[in-house]
Specification:
By secondary structure, the chain is α+β, with helices and mostly antiparallel strands. It is built from two helices and six strands. The radius of gyration is 19 Å and the shape is globular.
């Protein structure tokens, strides 16, 4: 389970993920956003949606392992209500389409029984990472660039 979520309710790989995030009273960002009306910045909620979407695409992974999916773009987002310190947010992500290198999802976030945000189009891109790091020496780099 990713450390950022307090609970994973459901994961059906390549179909759906439902997670819970408790918004702590002590989150440092509340000191400046905004001191008189403390609200969770929308970009932090979007980051949680992207992480939940990656979970929906891969299923649970061992601790410390990156899911390999990163946020590519998002559109048709609507923030409807503030998320405040102490709120418990349930994020529900549904995979719309996915292939080996890209995916499209939609999501909604609910707190205290009401929809606080909807994300109609969340696009993710698959990272390509070598299994074993490749060491390139100076001579190897010269050969690669044709500097013989």
């Amino acid at each position: 389970m990713p450390a950022r979520f307090d609970a994973v309710i459901e994961v059906v790989p390549r179909v759906r993920a439902r997670v819970v995030r408790n918004v702590p009273q002590t989150l440092a960002v509340f000191e400046t956003h905004f001191p008189r009306l403390r609200v969770l910045p929308g970009v932090l909620l979007l980051d949680d949606v992207a992480a939940a979407a990656a979970l929906a695409l891969t299923g649970p992974l061992p601790a410390g392992r990156h899911p390999g999916w990163v946020l590519g773009s998002v559109s048709r987002v609507r923030y409807r209500h503030f998320v405040r310190p102490g709120d418990q947010v349930e994020i529900d992500v549904q995979v719309v389409s996915a292939d080996g290198s890209s995916a499209s999802c939609r999501a909604q976030a609910v707190a205290a029984g009401r929809v606080v945000a909807t994300f109609r189009s969340v696009a993710l891109t698959r990272l390509v990472v070598a299994e074993e790091p490749v060491l390139v020496t100076a001579s190897g780099a010269s050969a690669m660039w044709g500097d013989d």
